[in-house]
């Protein structure tokens, strides 16, 4: 089931669009395609693939999407498939407010997280 999302600022690499669509990739648990306009990003659900990943948003970042309760956050990371495996961007997650379908990609400050972390096979 696809979800239409609103982004106050489009994710890096995507042009502004009135609505972005988050759609699950069939046969790949926790993998989504985020599309808007002519571009697409692949996102992994951190709860499924990176259960120990716990970045901290600033109050300002959380307010950008109206997030008051961390339990309402859907945490996604950009996946970059390559010939040598897949890397994920842990420094700039996409966070979606699950109740309002408003999302944003945030650059995390003062957190020692990699831009290209190798994704371990499950």
Automatic annotation (TrEMBL):
Q: Pfam families of this UniProt entry?
A: FliW
Q: Which InterPro entries match?
A: Flagellar_assembly_factor_FliW, Flagellar_assmbl_FliW_dom_sf
- Protein known as: Flagellar assembly protein FliW
Specify the taxonomic lineage: Bacteria, Bacillati, Actinomycetota, Actinomycetes, Micrococcales
Q: Per UniProt, which keywords does this protein have?
A: Cell projection, Cilium, Flagellum
